[in-house]
Amino acid sequence: MERDWSAAPPLSDEIAPDRLLVFEVVQDIRNIEGQLRKLGFLWVGDLERTYSADDDFRPAKGNLLDGRILATVPTQQALETLLQAWREYKAGNLPPTGALATLFGSLKDLRRWGPKDRLSIEAEAYLAECLREAPDDPVTLELELWPGPNQRSRAAALDAVRQAVLEDEGEVISSADIPGAGYLAVLVRVRPAVAQALLNRQNVHIALVDTVQVIGPRAQAVIDPNADEEQSQDEGIADVIDMPEAPVSESIANSPDIALLDGLPLTQHHLLEPFLDIQPPDELSIVTALADAPAEARQHGTAMASLILYEDLTAPDTGYRRKLLVRPILKPSRSFNGGWLESIPDDMLFGDILHRAILDLKRGRGGMAPAAPNLKIISLSVGDFRRPFHGVMSGAAKILDWLSFEFNILFIVSAGNWGERIVLDASEADVRSGKADVAGALFRENGSLIISPAESINALTIGSIHSDKANSAPLHRWVLPIDDPNAPAPYTRKGPGFHGAVKPDLCTPGGRLPYEFDIKHTGPGTSIKPAQPPARTLQKIGQQVAAPGRTPGELNGRAWNAGTSNSAAIAAGAAGRITEVIRGLSKEYVGDDGRSLLGEDYWPVLTKALLVHGARWENEEFYLNHFGLAGVLDRTAKTRARESVRRHIGHGVPDFGRVMECTRHRATLLGVGALGPDDASIFTLPLPADCWDIRCIRRIITTVAWISPVAPMRAGYRVAQLSVAWDDDAPGFNGVSATGGDARHANGKGTIWHEVKETAPKVYRKAPLNSVRLRVQCRDTLGLLSSGVKFGLAVSFEIAQGQADVSVDHLDVYADIAEKVHPKVPTPA
User: Fold this and answer.
1) How far apart are CA 381 and CA 385, in angstroms?
2) DSSP 517-560
3) How many Cβ atoms sit within 10 Å of the Cβ of residue 65?
4) What is the pLDDT, as a whole number, of residue 286?
5) What is the pLDDT of residue 826?
6) b vs e for 94-109, b when ≥16 Cβ sit within 10 Å of the residue's Cβ?
7) CA 350: distance to chain centroid?
8) Which of 139, 246, 334, 529 has a CB 3.0–4.6 Å from the CB of 421, allowing a cystine?
9) Cα separation, 371 vs 104, whole angstroms
10) What is the 3-state secondary structure (H, E, C) of 362-398?
11) Using CA atoms, how far apart are residues 307 and 251, in angstroms rounded to an integer?
12) pLDDT value of position 71
């Protein structure tokens, strides 16, 4: 029974709950998605995904894995016909042919989406944990609903959930309706018996409500400086060391470019006080908790503010020197061991807190004026470790995406920490000597996926490399499982992002984290786990940050910590410095009409482009060797190997200094614009004339960044796709993405286009071309684009020595290009 499914009447790709099917697969999910597209189905996301160790770079033959993916079919008739065909196939009565046979051969089940799919795998683990640790206590759950097309339908969905909760003898704590983000959610508290019934997959009222999309655990972002890694899942653990006060700059501008959403810092700390501008929260639970908590509870926000302003205090950077706006979103509370932890308030939805905070800053609420209407960058080092990204966008990520476009702001978020034990097929001696394959074990780990809201397509997601400025080495009791400053940290989480987008986008230093041997491990091999805070205090390993002092009234404390929170904060500080450079350029370069060529509305996207522009895999073979992928010779397999590495390192490790200064051997040009559907902008890059007659490498780096509108109820989700094409033939320039391999495998899936083209180190008798015309073009992927999409463009031409005996010192490509640019807008030295 073969049917041309693609011949069904073309409909919108709007996600319709009554036309959703669950495909339980037993093969490479990549192939299943392709089969669905060929048959005319619309992939919505993954409910559950288990990656094979070599899923992304080896041929799929014989490569089995488990997963559940969600897709919608064009019509109800198509749904019924497909289900009937599946039943016939399972019964052995009517084997399908062609594409349908390939699809059915990859499945172990095909069924309507229903109650059993509403409970996430993280919710199962959460329910079991709650019932085990407090069997008589109510359990708090977060319900995300299918948002209806209008206010009336959304109100009806909320009423249906409230009624179901009452019938289950539960309690509605709070709710939020954010139509632009497609976010409709309810925070509820249920009886232990209901929680147990959910865990047993028994029918309870809240699981039977048609408008409930996901029953998930309450959002958890807990920072506990005193607990072990299993309890805290922290984003940077602070160990206190008191040190002399460091000097601070006196030149502080008034208007902030960056806001930090985090815990409340120690506002009177000597290193921070001149810079902090606190926007008080209005969430009652946060206000009350902050009023009752001592200074020692203000660990995480203090550390993040320090990193934005100074980077690593072991060798502080000049850093960001404008006011830093802080909007507290974390609530301090006592932990079970008597210490303090900071977490998302348990009476509010995570997405609602983020939404309220941004409205306070950019638009104002309740008749109040906005606190910072010109704000451009948001630093968010808080993530929900109970919501790893399996393929379906979380509510918090959708909110960030919508807010990004609505208010023209750049979010910089942390990828999230993974603090579990690492079991190695090696002896303790091999681990100590560095012979154990730690990178391979991390590469094969399935549980270390980025956490909400790091999958946001408009945000820059930051992971960590295992690096800091401290000179200390671990004592004999502890080890550094990854001891290379260019390698991903063992605690950093990996991608990919939505529809295979590059995530994390960048990896910056996050601090080294010592590990200790797990003496309770009884299985084969050797187990190591993150060392407890006193280990870092003793050894001074990690990044040095400001911290509360040991005793009340001490305002110059320091600490050493590590985590992807640190990496995101460092990237946010770099974004602030880049914005300051753009501010200077915008005043210097104006058009004939007196307006700046770099208008302020374009600064967020231009900053985003420049943050990525300096990133590259400096040595592809290093990363392939690091993850045990060297020696892969087949072209397809090598492409997949690069994709696998990209899940860990993204576009690479950025050199922020490269984009804030030019050299005699490198010139960077900037451009901005706004594009509608099928629009394009042309930029001409003049090339120097005197670098072709020697054996050197000529390289052109192109980065375009944009902020796209999103359609939360459409399977495609992202509305605007930008790309870059060369209008001229470029003899000798070979295109590779900045992350290795063909750029098409890295670009076009998110909101960044980052590409490198370079020549071999050969002599040309004459310059093959005098300039390159770059076409930045926009495609409306969903037919919904109603306004121009702003973009920022950075293009660099640079030369590098091609062989040891050929010098390029006498060449000045910067001066040559600068002379040809009109108007002249180089990145300043």
Assistant:
1) 12
2) E-TT--SSSEEEEEPPHHHHHHHT-SEEEEE--SSTT---EEEE
3) 17
4) 92
5) 39
6) eebeebbebbbebbee
7) 17
8) 529
9) 56
10) HCCCCCCCCCCCCCCEEEECCCEEEEECCCCCCHHHH
11) 18
12) 81
Mean pLDDT of the chain: 84
The per-residue pLDDT for range 147-189, each reduced to its tens digit, is: 888 899 899 999 999 999 999 999 999 999 999 999 999 999 9
Main-chain dihedrals φ then ψ at residue 735, nearest 5 degrees = -85, 125
pLDDT digits over 200-212, tens only?
988 899 999 988 9
The model carries a pTM of 0.90
Tokens of 461: 């997601």
Phi, psi angle pair for 435, to nearest 5°: -85, -15
- The 8-class DSSP code of residue 151 comes to H
Return the DSSP state at 490.
Answer: T
CA atoms within 13 A on the CB side of 386: 23
User: Which residue reads 């470019």 in tokens?
Assistant: 257
Residues 6+ apart with CB under 8 A from 208: 115, 164
Residue 738 is which amino acid? A
Output the pLDDT for position 250. Answer: 45
Contact between residue 630 and residue 609 where contact means Cβ atoms under 8 Å apart = no
Q: With CA atoms as reference, report the closest residue to 544 among 472, 460, 465.
A: 472
Q: Which of 623, 610, 526 is nearest to 794 (CA)?
A: 610
H-run or E-run covering 789: strand 789-801
Residue 564 to residues 188, 190, 307, 416, 657: CA-CA distances in angstroms? 31, 34, 12, 6, 21
Give me the residues paired with residue 794 across strands. 670, 703
The helix/strand/coil state of 574 is helix
Would the pLDDT of 230 be above 80? no
pLDDT over 50 at 5, yes or no: no
Compare 622 and 185 and report the one with higher pLDDT.
185
